[in-house]
Design goal:
2 copies of one chain form a homodimer. By secondary structure, the first copy, chain A, is an alpha/beta fold. Chain A has 12 helices and 9 strands. In chain A, the strands form 2 sheets. Chain A has a 6-stranded parallel β-sheet with strand order 3-2-1-4-5-6, sandwiched between helices. Chain A has a 3-stranded mixed β-sheet with strand order 7-8-9, covered by helices on one side. At the A-B interface, α6, α7, α8, α9 and α10 of A face α6, α7, α8, α9 and α10 of B.
Chain lengths: 332, 332
């Protein structure tokens, strides 16, 4: 796992020195080699990036896999070695690991380099990483709203970011030229950038992501308890709706543990609202208030239409799933 | 909307007089012309059924659409007229409408005919329909675990039932030969049959379908309230997880109102367990108990694997969704 001979760490980059298709970087270091980092590497290559992409992962197994499949040009055993000479460093580790990684790489970051991250929580990452960023390095926190339920160095693919939003939460005083360079890279891999305040990001994501994930985990956990009672029927008959929840509840446990622990207040706030609302609907069921239920379900149907119209999901029924198994295997 | 000249209502069928590819019926009447009935018609035709398929829907608009697209051979203005001469009658209306339809058609059912339904709740349908079934008619309640978030006469497609479970909850004393004929039809359209007790069906479906649907409706409703605060951000950034919930929460409001009102006890029981479990996880977040969260999320991940291994969902990441929009439309 030694670096490529041609890696040329230590050579600083010049803003605007584009290396392929509007991606103004020469050497990109990915810290963490999971779904997001791997997809970024694939997407950059697919878009013609001709500079270096190097990486580090804490797990030796992940490093070995990444090296074997050629995910990046060079895999380094230490994060500090990986970032040397990089003009862009992307922290793609669980939110709870950001602070330790930043402490390790801080002294090794090149002056003028851009440091970003892909964490699903922003204020906690800013608090953890910020103190370790040396003067002259541009720290621009980010979060691509893209992912699948899969994880690890082999799960990435070049189109993950296509037509997705990539949120940036820059700190006051961020160098506009540095931000423009990062935005150019994000645009080159197919995503759209929005800029917002970190606290607002954390609230919006609590609604659109964190609370839904915890709810899906919970529903699948309830079914798991019952599965032992009903002898596998929950799995067997999951196509009635439940299986949708299991996809979300198959997401990486470490990543999501850290998300909840680091966006605690906003997530608990939304879950509190959820529980209130659930109780109102449970009461409507108990009291037989069909009108309330019908009105509620009609409103929620309209939201799906809004998401499809906004280009954020497919219009195909059932997400366009292809049925598993080409034909009936059993007549009775 | 007059019947086809060749419809020949009134001609009784003989068990075993198969009309195409192992579907032992001559004239099938579909009461209700939505997603399930339409898919059944498409699937039977695709499998070579050469007998008649006729139908009725309460809504004139639905009847017009069904006639225009040729969903069935004949569309009748009344359910009673549609069932005359049919050797299989399928009730495919919302659970809350089953009783009234059964009362209307009961006197017009042919001796020897099979009457089934596709309701998502079984005990309530048995209670509502049973009293209207004349002697000599075989009432065999059923429930195909298949559907999409779409509804109406144009939403059906021939592969909806492929590799799905179709549960039957026959009453004591059901004629085995009649049940075999229904099972043959279900097998011919690609589904697998399981037989169970109605009360057990209603409990299993509360876990795998009814509670997940109410939870999805609730989460989308919460986001709808917040959407007004956050100016469309919930829709814009829905790809972070939330959009999965919106698919389920786009399901037919009337159908689902009736499901909850008619499977009240089992649904409320599962929702009670869900809330308890949610509170335990909320507490773990509040107390910072990362180990509890990680262990929980690791268990739920395994369930997804079980569902894929059981052939009940695709292994493709993100359900195999195809990204909307071929390329970035916006660079900033």
């Amino acid at each position: 796992m030694s670096p490529d001979v041609g890696a040329a760490p230590g050579a600083g980059s010049q803003p605007g020195a584009a290396t392929g298709a509007g991606m103004p970087f020469r050497r990109v270091a990915l810290i963490g080699l999971g779904l997001i980092a791997g997809s970024l590497a694939h997407a950059m290559r697919a878009q013609g990036f001709t500079g270096q992409i190097v990486g580090h992962a804490r797990s030796a197994e992940t490093r070995d896999t990444a090296a074997r499949i050629g995910l990046v040009d060079s895999v380094y055993d230490s994060a500090a070695a990986a970032v040397a000479g990089a003009d862009l460093v992307v922290l793609a580790v669980p939110v709870g690991a950001m602070g330790a990684v930043a402490a390790e790489i801080g002294p090794h970051l090149e002056p003028g380099a851009i440091l970003t991250d892909v964490g699903s929580v922003k204020q906690a990452v800013i608090d953890a990483v910020g103190p370790h960023v040396p003067a002259g390095v541009h720290f621009i926190p980010g979060h691509p709203l893209a992912g699948t339920e899969q994880s690890g160095p082999e799960s990435g693919f070049a189109t993950l970011f296509r037509n997705r939003w990539w949120l940036l939460t820059p700190l006051p005083g961020t160098d506009p030229a540095a931000q423009d360079r990062l935005v150019a890279l994000i645009g080159a891999v197919g995503a759209h950038v929005d800029v917002m305040d970190p606290a607002h990001h954390d609230l919006v994501l609590a609604v659109t992501s964190h609370a839904p994930h915890l709810i899906a985990y919970t529903m699948v956990g309830v079914a798991d308890h019952l599965r032992r009672v009903t002898e596998g029927e929950v799995i067997k008959y999951s196509a009635a709706g439940f299986r949708d929840f299991t996809r979300i509840a198959a997401s990486d446990p470490t990543m999501w543990r850290d998300v909840f622990l680091h966006n605690r207040e906003a997530t608990l706030d939304i879950l509190g609202r959820f529980t209130e609302e659930l109780f109102v609907l449970q009461r409507a069921i108990r009291m037989g208030d069909g009108q309330h239920l019908h009105d509620y379900f009609s409103r929620t149907r309209a939201i799906r239409r809004g998401i499809i119209d906004a280009g954020q999901d497919t219009d195909a029924p059932d997400f366009g799933r292809v049925p598993v198994g080409g034909a009936a295997r059993d007549k009775g």
